[in-house]
Every structure is written in C-alpha cells, then in structure tokens.
Amino acid sequence: MTMFLSLSNTQKARPRRFGYRISVVGAVSFLIIAAWTLVAIFAPYIAPHPVGDIVDFDFFGPVSAQFPLGTDYLGRDMLSRILLGARYTVGISLAAVCVACFCGVTLGMTAAVIGGWFDRGLSRMLDALTSIPSKILALVIVAAVGTSIPILIVTLAIIYTPGCYRFARALAVNINTMDYVTVARARGEGIGYLIRSEILPGIIGPVLADFGLRFVFIVLLLSSMSFLGLGVQPPFADWGALVKENIGGLSFAAPAVIFPSIAIATLTISVNLLIDNLPQKIRDRSEQ
Which of 12, 30, 101, 265 has a 20 to 30 Å separation from 222 between CA atoms? Predict the structure, then answer.
C-alpha cells in the first residue's frame, strides 16, 4: 500500500508536457516571412529614397555606405526599390492566393457535397482551364485586357483556382463519406451547414499547407511575368521586374541583379521550409 501511494505521488508530481514542438528551421523561416511582411507594410516609411528618384549619376553604382545595395541602370537606389518592391511581390501574391484558395476550396467542397451533374460539369470545366499552361494563359489575359494590379491579382487567381479546387474536392470527397456527415445529412442539415461545420474542419490543415505552396507558385509566376514585362509597370516594380530591368548589367554590376533574386529566394524558400516544419502537437508520453 505504501509503495502504491509513493508511485501515485511521483506520477502526480511529474509535470505533463503538452504543446507544440517548433523546429529551429521552422522558427527561422517564420521570422524571415514575418520580416518581409513588415517590410511590405512599412516600406514607404523605411525606404531611404522615393522609388523613382535618380540619386546617383553613376548608373549601376557599386555597393557603398550611401547605397548599401548599389544603384540600378538609371542610378536609382536598389535598397529603396527592393523594399518598395516587396509591397507588390508580397501584396499581389497574397491577395491572389487568398482569392484562388477561397474560390477553389469553396467550389471543391460544394462539388463534393452536391455531387452529380454539378460535380462533373464543374470538374470538366476546370480541367480544361488546367490544361492551358499557366504562363501562356497569363500572357493571353494580360495582353488582352492590359496590365494593372487588379488584373494581375485576378489573372493569378484564375490560374491557380483549378488546382485549389481539385485538392479541396479530393479531401472533401473522403470526408463526405464519414458517418457523422451522413448523420448530419439525415437530420436535414443544409449544404451550407455541411460545408461549414462538417467538411471544412476536417480539411483545414492540408488546405493551409496547400495555401503556402500556392503562394510560392504565385510569387514565381508573378516574377516570371514581370521579367517578361507584363507585371507591375514602371516606375514601380516588383522583384521580378527589378531582375529584368537590370539584367543587362549582370556582367559588371551583379548586385543590381543578385539582390532582388536573393529577396525572391529567401521568401519562397522560407515559405517552403515553414510548411515542411509546421509544428506538430506532441502527446504526453509520461507514465500514467
């Protein structure tokens, strides 16, 4: 009896360890993403010079104390242009991925719940849209209606909505066969309730991971469009446009090309690493 009480007191004294294990890589990635987000928000207040001002008569100026990242092909400060370019790269990509994921996930869950002709017709239509290469579709849309920030957001959202739809539909179809969904349908719950309260909670984790990956894809596609001259128009520029407009000086003024490329790489790689190192809840493995 004494031994039993001693073991019980020992177990009660041992603290339970519930929580999330956050890896160093995930934490560093999150800090980099947070830093670029803050830069995008406060860029006009922290940029040393206005985005279009020529501040150096020596084009492709070297890195110096006055210009920490050098100057571009017109003598504009690269640090200011990279900081202000973060507003367009991060802002446009985030807006586009939010629209794409909202539309794709909503349509995917709706198709899974309704099924029948609605599911088949919507799936075939979005499959046809998926069959068009993303860059070609973006070039066609932008060439047809012109270039502006709202058009870029809508174009990128249209391109990535089918992928979000197929991913969400595949998850929702599996959840839709669960017993608790069948019970909810049997007691007369509507489509909106099934989607909001039964399907969405079961797929939210994978959808958030897919959200991060789509964000990376959109950043790279936006940079590609800007490199082709169909992105943000001068004097404003996102990071892809900064690489494109300074590519002619790569052989003798590499900083003007390398630093925007590093900005793109740090953002996209950090998002990928954060997704790969999402914190996982660890169960208490102490003796009971």
Answer: 30
Q: Are 66 and 57 in contact (CB under 8 A)?
A: no
Per-residue pLDDT tens over the stretch 47-72:
888 888 888 887 888 888 888 888 88
Name all domains of the chain by residue range, CATH numbers in brackets.
19-277 (1.10.3720.10)
Q: How many Cβ atoms sit within 10 Å of the Cβ of residue 230?
A: 22
Q: Which two tokens stand for residue 99?
A: 């629209």
For residues 112 and 108, give the distance between their C-alpha atoms in angstroms, rounded to a whole number: 6
Contact 184, 198 (CB under 8 A): yes
Cis preceding linkage at 235, omega within 30: yes
CA atoms within 13 A on the CB side of 16: 7
- Predicted TM-score (pTM) of the model is 0.81
Cα(250)–Cα(79) distance, rounded to whole angstroms?
17
Distances 207 to 195, 196, 211 between C-alpha atoms, Å: 14, 14, 6
Distance CA 135, CA 51 (A): 28
DSSP track, 180-202: HHHHHHHTT--HHHIIIIIIHHH
pLDDT tens figures, 138-179: 888 888 887 788 898 999 999 999 999 999 999 998 888 888
Residues 108, 169 contacting (CB under 8 angstroms): yes
